[in-house]
Amino acid sequence: MNSRLEDIVSKIVASDKIIIHRHANPDPDALGSQSGLAEAIKFTYPEKQVKIVGSPVGDLTWINQPEEVANDFYQNALVIVTDTADRPRVSDQRFDQGNYLIKIDHHPNDDAYGDMYYVDTDASSCSEIIVDLINASDQRLKLNQEAARVLYAGIIGDTGRFLYSATSEHTFNVAAQLVAYGFDHTAVSQSLNEVTLNQAKLQSIVYDRLHFDQNGAAHIVISRELLAELGVKDDQVNSVVSTPGHLREVLLWTLFVEKEDGTYRVHFRSKGPVINEIAKAHHGGGHPLASGANATDVAEINQIVAQMEQAGHDFQLQTK
Questions:
Q1: What is the 3-state secondary structure (H, E, C) of 263-310?
Q2: Are residues 107 and 34 in the same domain?
Q3: 258-305 confidence digits (pLDDT tens)
Q4: Last residue in a domain, options 178, 193, 208
Q5: Given CA atoms 237, 105, 126, 13 in this order, what sign does their dihedral have?
Q6: Predicted model pTM
Q7: What is the CATH number of the domain that holds 209?
Q8: Is residue 201 domain-shared with residue 109, that is, in the same domain?
Q9: Secondary structure (3-state) at 89
Q10: Which domain holds residue 268?
């Protein structure tokens, strides 16, 4: 059962050392919720020791950068994990080395880890939940301009600039609250919109080589060879995940990105059919319309493609 936001605030207020984690391969919401919470705590309680940790953030360094944290810093520390549905996805597996663990998330709660957790699957983003947490704190946590900036980045990142269905009236109200802090929201949107020339070339190749069937199920395999040829790094591939969705003919899609070990990171997206159950069947998970998983080889890729095509077919039958 969800803990109350007020109880999470009380735990934060009572803690002198706080370490905040997020998921590996971070997106703007992972970074925004992590650093937005950290900034709010540091602004309200300058005497507290607050650290953010995790793997490198690629071209999202304008949101935040992780810090080096010694193992002994975890002693008697409160650890908070944001935007991370299950334990294997937590970036930096020392997250369970503190004396208390809190999970804050908006993905389905299939892995209810932590001594305390708060999960709201109706929230547009984890960054939106962090604003709710601060608003519920009765001024025991306060926003400042920097916290507002990164939380806004997280919200517009996970809503596709308010395009996706999880965007609600409450989402717009929270965004307006953050913009009132006076940061350059246009610069935030522009930073999320920009791609390098090499990323743009990869987007072009995605359009050119995308395979899709008559029901709108699309897929593409992005090889190590192609990434090397274009000079695109692994952490820059996220810029093309939404690309197939711009096509009217595409209803749901999968990107298979080859990793250094020859396996594949799988990105699932959909405009209607529920796809997170397919992701769960392949050691992944996520939202009903946006998930991730892994594929071992080409045989598993073919299996996933068939499952996605079936999901598209079933959805078309249901909606006729």
A1: CEEEEEEECCCCCHHHHHCCCCEECCCEEEEEECCHHHHHHHHHHHHH
A2: yes
A3: 999 999 999 999 999 999 999 999 988 888 999 999 999 999 999 999
A4: 193
A5: negative
A6: 0.91
A7: 3.10.310.30
A8: no
A9: helix
A10: 197-319
